[in-house]
């Protein structure tokens, strides 16, 4: 039984209570993360049609992946059966599918794996094995969009302290994430930082494109590509 089974019914509400300090909801951050990934992939002339949301939870990001990436198919996988059941009830679309992580291999290969805020819940010694599974699920030259919470941002730590399932998480620094990914057989293409300004300062958000290489945003993206064996 996953620790997140107990939070499946209240997951979004608990997350939004923590995020309320920013003045934004979970939906805002999900939309902006996918928008950023879409922009990065467009710069690489990449159009992923088969997408995996690794650690999809209750499935809130999967419709954004369909819409913004114009994907043909999105598969969400998670360790929490209760979260998957909630996702199936809420998100009904012939292009969407929700499976357990154990079923991930038979669902691929994928052009893109998207993952947000998952690895700070994975015990450090288990992270290489999880990354190996993700790599196997990717098609040749497939992309991996690895989002994590930035431990160098005090506001991030404050928000996480207000969310029950995030309080004891083991955050990963950007250099550590890049090292893990490189050792797992990925070519690290870029690291971007996002979410510098709360809603109160939303007028400044157009500056985030210029600030994205400054390691101060609330979250960061490591975009990488699967290397050939």
Considering the chains and any ligands shown, give keywords for the structure.
single chain, alpha/beta, 229 residues, 7-stranded mixed sheet
Element layout with pairings:
Blueprint: H1 11-19, H2 26-43, E1 50-54, H3 62-69, E2 73-78, H4 81-90, E3 96-100, H5 104-107, E4 110-116, H6 127-137, E5 138-149, H7 154-161, H8 174-183, E6 186-194, H9 208-211, E7 219-226
Parallel strand pairs: 1-2, 1-4, 2-3, 4-5
Antiparallel strand pairs: 5-7, 6-7
Helix pairs in contact: 2-3
Structural write-up:
- There is one protein chain.
- The chain has 229 residues and is an alpha/beta fold.
- Helices cover 36% and strands 23% of the residues.
- The protein has 9 helices and 7 strands.
- Strands 3-2-1-4-5-7-6 form a 7-stranded mixed sheet, with helices on both faces.
- α4 links the parallel β2 (73-78) and β3 (96-100).
- The longest helix is centred in the N-terminal third of the chain and has 18 residues, at 26-43.
- It is globular.
- The model has no long low-confidence stretch (mean pLDDT 93).
């Amino acid at each position: 039984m996953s620790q997140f089974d107990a939070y499946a019914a209240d997951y979004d509400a608990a997350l939004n209570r923590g995020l309320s300090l920013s003045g934004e909801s979970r939906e805002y951050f999900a939309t902006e993360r996918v928008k950023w990934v879409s922009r990065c992939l467009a710069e690489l002339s990449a159009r992923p049609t088969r997408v995996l949301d690794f650690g999809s939870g209750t499935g809130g990001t999967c419709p954004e992946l369909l819409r913004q990436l114009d994907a043909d198919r999105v598969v969400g996988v998670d360790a929490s059966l209760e979260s998957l059941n909630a996702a199936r009830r809420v998100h009904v679309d012939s292009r969407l599918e929700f499976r357990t992580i154990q079923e991930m291999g038979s669902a691929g290969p994928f052009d893109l794996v998207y993952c947000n805020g998952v690895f700070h819940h994975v015990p450090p010694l288990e992270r290489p094995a999880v990354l190996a599974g993700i790599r196997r699920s990717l098609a040749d030259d497939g992309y991996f969009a690895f989002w994590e919470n930035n431990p160098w941002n005090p506001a991030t730590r404050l928000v996480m302290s207000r969310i029950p399932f995030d309080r004891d998480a083991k955050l990963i620094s950007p250099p550590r994430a890049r090292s893990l990914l490189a050792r797992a057989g990925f070519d690290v293409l870029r690291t971007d930082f996002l979410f510098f300004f709360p809603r109160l300062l939303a007028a400044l958000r157009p500056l985030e494109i210029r600030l994205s290489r400054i390691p101060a945003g609330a979250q960061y993206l490591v975009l990488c590509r699967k290397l050939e064996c």
